[in-house]
Please model this.
Amino acid sequence: MINYPMPAVVGNRNVKRALACALSSPDIRAVLICGPPGTGKTMLANSLDNIVPGKRTVRLPLNADNEGVTGGLDLESVLRDGRRRTFKGVLERSDGNILIAENMSALRESVTNMLLDSVHKGYGLPEGDGMSGPCECKFLLIGTIDSRECLSDGVMDCFDMCVFTETSENEADRAEIVTRHIEYENDPEGLRDRFSDDAARMSETVIAAMKRYPHVTVSDGYVGAISKLSKELNVEGHRGDISMMHVSRALAAMDGRDSVSMEDLKEAASMCLEHRRKDVASDASSEPERGPDKNDSAKKDEHGDNDEGSEREDGHEDVPSFAPDSLESTPDASNDAEEIFVVGREFDVIDYMPKTREKRHMKNSGRLDAKISKDHSGRTVGYRIPSSRTCDIALGATIYAAAPHQTHRDRRGLAIAVKTEDVREKVREKRHGTKIMFLVDGSGSMGAEQRMVAVKGAILSLLREAYLERNEVGLIVFRKNVAEAVLSPTKSVLTASRRLAEMPTGGRTPLVHGMAKAYDMLRIDASKGYAPILVILTDGRNNVKYGSGDENFREEMLSVASSMSSSGIRFVVIDTETGHVRLGLAVALSKALAGTYIRLEELNAEYLKGSVNMIK
Model:
C-alpha cells in the first residue's frame, strides 16, 4: 500500500514540523496528534513511512490487548508439534520503527500504559501466560486522538509533544484537499511521483538534522528561560522542560544551526507545554486574602513597602517564604474571631508517605498501590503453581508447562494431554490510587504569627505531590466545636486549592472530633486492605471534649489515638508547633497512633538540604 505523501497534505505546517522534529531527535519518543475527525491525523502519521530510509510505520490494532502488544504463546504450534514457541508482539515488530496508535482514548488503559512505559524505557515486559524476559523495542510512538475526547493528565504528560491539526476555512484550500484525495484514490503512484521532489527534500532535511542534532547546544540563559516559562504556565514535573529542550535543539538542527535561538524556544513551547499547562496558580492567587492586621500599618512605616508581607507595585501581596523563622508562635490562645489567611509559597516535598507492611509494587503510570488479589478479580500479572484446587486457570502457562511432555504421553486422540502437575493458576493484581485525607487544625491558635500562611503553603504542596502520584485527596478542618469535611476525596488539585484558600481560621481546637471524622471516612477503605493515609497537621493541643469520660483533654486524645492505631490506616502527624519551648503533644499523638512524625519545616526538601549544608 502506498501511503499519502506528507508534502501532499494541505496546511498543517505545525504538525509536519513536529513530526520532522521527532524523526530528527532520538530523545523525542512520543508525539500526540489531536484534532477533529477528518482533519488528516492518521494520514499525517502514516506519511512518515520511509522518510528516514529503513524506518517504516507499524500500526497498532484498534482492539489490541496486552498479549498482542508484548507477544504471547503460539498455541497452534504447541498443540501441533508439542514445542514451546511464541509469536512477536507489536512492540518487538516496532523496534527501530514508528508505531502508530490511532484513537488512543479508545485503547485499554493497560495497553496505553504499556506503550508509554515501553517507549520511554526502550524495552517491553511480556505479560502473557508462560512469557518471561524483556524485549528490546526502541521506537517512536505517534498517537492520535479526537479533540472531543480526552486522556488523563498523567498520560498526556508522557507525550513529548502534542500538536493540533487545522480545519481550513479557505475555499481554495478545501477544494485542493478534495482534488488531491480524488487523485490519490485513482492513482496513488501518480500523486506520490508528483510530490517526490518535495518528499526527497524533506528526507534530506531530516537526515541532515539527525547528524547535526548531537552537536546542537542550548545556552545557559535559554535553559533558565525554559524553566521560567514552565513555572509561569504551572507545568507540573520536569518532563515539559526536558521535552522543550530536545524539540528546540531539533528545530535548530533542521534549520542547519548549531545553537538554539529564541524563536526555536517559542515554537517548541507551543508543542511541548500547551498540553501540560495548569491554571491552578492563577485561581489560588485570586482567592480572598487575610483580613487587615492592626499592626500592618506600623510594619509598613517601620520597614518600608518592599518588605516581605507588604504590597508590591503590581498589587499582589508577597507571602513570607516557608522557613522555620516564620513559624515562631505564641502559646495557644483560642480566638473566636475568624480570619482567612493567604496560601503560603509552595515547595518541593520530601518523601513523607509511610510504607505498608505488605509488599507493594510501584508503576510508572503513577504511583498507584498494587496488591495481589485474593479473588478472581483484577488484572492478570503472572501465574503460579496452585497450592490447592483452582478454577482460575492460566491456560497458556498450563499448556506451556505440558508441551515438552507430549511426545511420551498417551494423548488418547486429544491434541494435548494435561496432568495435574501442569496446571498453573493466574496471579491477579488490583491497582488503585492511595486515598489521602488531610486533617487540618483551623483553630485560632494557628493564626498566631501568621502560622496558617505557612501551613496552607505546606498543605498545597502536599496536595500537588499527591496529584502527581495519582492519589485521591480530601480535606477536613477542625475548629470551634466541630470537624467539617470541606473537600471529599478528589483528584482535582484545582478544587482542593480553592477550598484551601477559602478556609477560615478561628475558635477552639476539637482535635479528637477531627480524628473521629477522618476515621469514619477512611475505615471502609482500610477494612478492604487498601491502607489509606491520614495526614494530621496540628500542634497536638486539644481543648474540646469528645466523649463523656473523665479523662482530661490530653488523655482523651491519646486514648482515641491508641484505639485507631491498628485500624489499617497509615498515620502521618505533621507538627505545627513552633517556638523554643515545645510541649511535644504532637510527638505523643504520633506515638499513640503508631504513625510517622514530621515537623512542619522538615517537609521542605530545600530546608533539609540547607540544614545538611550548614552542618557540613
